[in-house]
Specification:
Blueprint lengths: L16 H23 L2 H8 L3 H8 L2 H11 L1 H12 L9 H14 L7 H13 L8 H20 L7 H15 L4 H6 L8 H15 L1
């Protein structure tokens, strides 16, 4: 069950079918992010969205279809990353690596300042860390094509790295990025976490690791 109790009636849901579908997606996004795929039930989502279970089944059919629809609805984030990557004029330029890292992380960091978007950022972390994610089509269909483009860009920007470097380096970079969606740990480590510096530190950290790894 969710770790935080929704209101008895859930949030108000707009009357239009499209708006109801969107409300269900955002409610599901939050609950999946908190509880994971296997820890979430369709009834949990219905309670959070303030709708009847039958309405969720009508719009999405199954839990997996609903789960997949969340990532599809947020695919604009990955598309923006690819657009930024492809806009880099010269991948061999001195500042190309900085541009590649910004293309990878900035569209995701923008979610961290969005009260709704932060749940998606945390859901991506959940999915990436879940061993059972290989049983679902999310990463292979919606993330891996983009990942391959970034890996190839790294090959051009950082020639001569040892075998296996580019794939692992990409995954380690994504790991640092996805972990940044939670600020609770850094708050535990210091009374003054200086959250405004997170984006700059993350970019410089990933860039340095890629360049000197």
């Amino acid at each position: 069950m969710p770790t935080s109790e929704p209101s008895p009636q859930g949030p108000a849901v707009a009357a239009g079918p499209g708006e109801r579908r969107e409300a269900i997606l955002r409610a599901a996004e939050k609950i999946f992010a908190m509880e994971g795929y296997h820890g979430t039930t369709m009834r949990d989502i219905a309670a959070e969205a303030g709708v009847k279970l039958a309405l969720i089944v009508y719009h999405f059919g199954t839990k997996l279809a609903l789960y997949t629809a969340i990532f599809e609805s947020r695919q604009y984030v990955n598309l923006e990353r690819v657009v930024r990557l492809e806009a880099i004029e010269d991948l061999r330029a001195e500042n190309a690596l900085d541009q590649i890292v910004s293309a990878l992380v900035d569209p995701v960091l923008a979610l961290h300042t969005d009260p709704d978007g932060i749940w998606y950022a945390r859901l991506v972390l959940r999915e990436a860390a879940d061993p059972s994610s290989q049983d679902r089509p999310i990463l292979s269909t919606l993330f891996d094509p983009m990942a391959r483009q970034f890996i190839e860009a790294l090959r051009v920007a950082l020639p001569g790295k040892p075998r296996g470097f580019y794939h692992w380096a990409y995954l380690f970079s994504v790991g640092a990025l996805t972990q940044s969606s939670f600020d609770a740990r850094v708050r535990n480590l210091t009374d003054n976490p200086e959250l405004d510096s997170k984006a700059a530190v993350l970019r410089s950290y990933i860039t340095a690791a890629l360049r000197h790894g």
